[in-house]
């Protein structure tokens, strides 16, 4: 297969400023870049601008460093301005954390294994040994940690060191049934993606399907979100829901929920890998 | 149009008992009844039986009173057994309570006005005069009440007396922005249907669309439920949800939400009118 | 209620041209206009640009004629370029065509009657007298036409003359069970909106719910589209679908379908009224 | 893990007969069986009865042969009656046919590999070698066949012999891009499950996502069905659909469609494995 053309993605949000969009597209054009996509959103209430601009750099002579320098001038500095430039040659490195439930892990590995996503998976971390065989099926290193109340600080320190050694960019909690400490979360701000098996903010915490059955809801849901210090309260990336009825037992809800969970988690991970998500003021902007 | 054939509906729940279903169908058959539909559900966890049995009584010689007497013998008595027999000639009488938002009221009146539902609407109660013109458009009596903290007890007493005088069977709160007292609720147990503009148990209480936008959810929902003493905690009858994104403002959510609200409320009301809902242990069984 | 601020909406599509978006926003800014929303889409395959730009003209001194003239210079001319400028003071005039089914008509009239849409309904046209009473309920003129094979040309001529006299801008076929001639369609290009009670291109033509039941599909749908010469083949504006099962009879499908039909039709009509739809090469671009 | 209790499933359809349901449940009870679930459906139009009855046979002394003999007496014979008894100890044997697209194969193997389904996969058949590595990842035998117009009859004969040798019960076409001959289909009546990447009957045949984009639909779908002689016309088991817009390219539709395809296929396969599907008159009854 021919090597795909190299491209860069600019992900930016800043206070709305007339002409900035034109300045950005002219800059790309003047460099010799070919715009692949340009998505924009303005929040009219707070007059804030969000954009994702991708361009082919085959014909671009400028180095990435020069490009970044020029963008810095164009965009300017401001406490409510953030941007990043991502090069298609830089493949993100994802760690997957698991406990005993296999479905989300299988779905993630199938997508990486089949080339659907351009991502590396250097390590799978488990707090139970159950899924080591799944990891080995896909040839991915598995690292087991036995976590208890007494040793949880030490374990997290070890895990952080492991992730650091593997140069991990972001972490996916694929039904990882362990709460991360604020210190751990702070090491990967907006870079830990969790799947919660309920339609947040309904049914946070443990055993949401049991609570859903107990409450008699007529739909169940799943929510993927970035992890923050507060449990199940981070910025929501993706949600979906499914009709159920009185006929479904808790076991049925768990079974039906699996497909929701894996699809909702994988959509979020796919958007993260493709640099389509901006987090601002506790909410996400997810470009199509 | 020819008068439709008369039929009765038995709505029953009781502890599971072998042979009861056969006894019921044989009873109908022996009377000369023609079974129109027979829906059954067994909750295997609590071994409880729920059924809705409808039969054409054109050829039945037995009076309703005799039928009820025989059913009583067949079904037996038990503290966890409840049943009711509904005759197609008895048209339920529905009161609608409204405030200022018209969309649910219009939808309910369009369905009654077009004959989609077999129901009478003797009165619309409003705590604001805004929707009187809608009521008069459909030729339905409108009764306005000015409710304030000081007079709420008196107003409820007047309303109960009004409903009693109109022989109201059940009440629909069509975006009625007033909390009913436990005394009022107790007068119509499992016979007051409310629409809440959120996916309960997420976002109970006031201004759920604002909360949804604030939280950054990716779907909005609506919930219809029977009203109990505890706000927004009654048995859920129907729910639905709709995908939204960062692009939608609170105003957009309110606009999109209208269609959800009216459809979710009307589905619940339609099921109630057709005697398809059983309430048991805080949950509903809603037959198709 | 205070008069809302006046605004204009530009709806434009043209071959992609660098800097056009900036030229448009600068033009608005230089006039003193305040941009309310700016939606853009580029089809990367055909390099075509689609945009909807709305701005508040409270502080704008330029007349609409001058604005149009300046836009003409900015945008230029091209056989694949089309644009229109809509002023918020110009209220569109909608005719509704009906047969016997009331639900879509009720839904349209409820939205116009409650002020949800800014639209005039000068006339309802029926090929059966059944819905005259609904029209009169909402105080709208009803004009009945008895259409037969022999007189259909004459009837259409009369209808066109009626619509012309009422200065109708667009027509909604709210379950109008009569096929319009090419001549009629040509008089209102991309200005006749139909609802088809199936998920097109599945089940075009008559009795789609019967066909759906016959085929054993597990979902039913509804499609709103602009009418073209070819039956049920015009540009699709909106679609939605609903899960069903073997348990639903044809009558159930018809009943469940009603809510789909009215919501799908009304979403399309709402987008048309708000000038959010561009038709290009047989497809629609519908801005949020 | 303790061995789960053995149970049997009766799947039956026959002309409606008063008392049959009671006879069946009494028969189970008299044997000492414990009913686990009992789902019933009557099609009122054709007065036909469909049921799935599952019971725990831990305490049952009767052999399966005796049970079958007694059921035969109870149910009787009729040209429109069909039934089968499935024992939980008999694990169905599934062959998977693939071409080049991996997502459905991965999803099927993840479910079998994780024990979500009780099924054996003795062989994967490919008409391209591309997915051999996926098969070997899960330790499943892969058999490649190079199919051309000239040799297709011979290849099918070889495949049938292979399937026969492996004692295959049913076949899943997991994006197998080859049309099976009537002879092949006849060897596995209602036992070949296909996934079509469109909302049938819309867009049968090749390249449905291209057709969907071309037609400008606002939702895409997927359909799983039993294969019959006529292409894409067999009894539908499961369907689902997803909203799309003008913003999605064909490539986006293909990408979004993957998740639909695998979920819709796997739901069908799961229902087949659990003996929840009855095919009658070209349609399916799928119990929950």
Short key terms for the protein model shown above:
homotetramer, 288 residues, four-stranded antiparallel β-sheet, seven-stranded mixed β-sheet, 29% strand, 8 helices, alpha/beta
Helices and strands in order:
Four copies of one chain form a homotetramer.
Chain A: E1 7-15, H1 20-31, E2 34-43, E3 48-56, H2 64-75, E4 82-87, E5 93-98, H3 103-113, E6 120-126, H4 132-137, E7 142-144, H5 152-165, E8 170-173, H6 182-187, E9 192-196, H7 208-215, E10 219-226, E11 236-243, H8 250-273, E12 277-280, E13 283-286
Parallel strand pairs in A: 5-6, 5-8, 6-7, 8-9
Antiparallel strand pairs in A: 1-3, 1-4, 2-3, 9-10, 10-11, 12-13
Helix pairs in contact in A: 3-8, 7-8
Describe this structure in words.
The structure is a homotetramer of 288-residue chains. Chain A is an alpha/beta fold and 288 residues long. Chain A contains eight helices and 13 strands. Chain A has helices at 20-31, 64-75, 103-113, 132-137, 152-165, 182-187, 208-215, 250-273, and strands spanning 7-15, 34-43, 48-56, 82-87, 93-98, 120-126, 142-144, 170-173, 192-196, 219-226, 236-243, 277-280, 283-286. In chain A, the strands form three sheets. Chain A has a seven-stranded mixed beta sheet with strand order 7-6-5-8-9-10-11. The first copy, chain A, has a four-stranded antiparallel beta sheet with strand order 2-3-1-4, covered by helices on one side. In chain A, strands 12-13 form a two-stranded antiparallel ribbon. The longest helix of chain A is centred in the C-terminal third of the chain and has 24 residues, at 250-273. The A-B interface holds A 41, 43-45, 50, 199-203, 215-219, 221, 235-241, 245-247, 249, 282-286 and B 41, 43-45, 50, 199-203, 215-219, 221, 235-241, 245-247, 249, 282-286.
């Amino acid at each position: 297969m021919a090597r795909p053309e190299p491209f860069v993605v600019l992900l930016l949000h800043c206070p709305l400023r007339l002409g900035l969009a034109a300045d950005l597209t002219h800059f790309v054009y003047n460099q010799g870049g070919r715009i692949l996509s340009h998505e924009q959103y303005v929040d009219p209430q707070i007059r804030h601008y969000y954009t994702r601009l991708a361009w082919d750099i085959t014909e671009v002579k400028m180095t990435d460093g020069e490009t970044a320098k020029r963008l810095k001038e164009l965009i300017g500095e401001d406490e409510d301005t953030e941007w990043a430039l991502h090069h298609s040659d830089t493949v993100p490195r994802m760690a997957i954390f698991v406990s005993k439930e296999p479905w989300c892990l299988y779905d993630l590995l199938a997508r990486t294994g089949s080339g659907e996503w351009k991502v590396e998976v250097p390590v799978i971390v488990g707090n139970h040994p159950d899924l080591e065989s799944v990891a080995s099926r896909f040839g991915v290193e598995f690292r087991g940690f036995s976590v208890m109340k007494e040793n949880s600080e030490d374990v997290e320190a070890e895990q952080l060191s492991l992730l650091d050694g593997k140069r991990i960019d972001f972490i996916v909690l694929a039904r990882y049934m362990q709460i991360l400490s604020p210190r751990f979360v702070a090491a990967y701000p907006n870079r830990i993606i969790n799947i919660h098996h309920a339609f947040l903010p309904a049914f946070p915490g443990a055993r949401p399907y049991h609570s859903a059955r107990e409450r008699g809801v007529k739909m169940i849901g799943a929510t993927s979100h970035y992890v923050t210090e507060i449990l199940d309260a981070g910025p929501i990336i993706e949600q979906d829901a499914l009709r159920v009825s009185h006929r479904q037992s808790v076991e049925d809800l768990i079974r039906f929920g699996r497909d929701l969970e894996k699809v909702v988690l994988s959509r979020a991970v796919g958007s993260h890998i493709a640099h389509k998500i901006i987090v601002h003021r506790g909410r996400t902007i997810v470009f199509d």
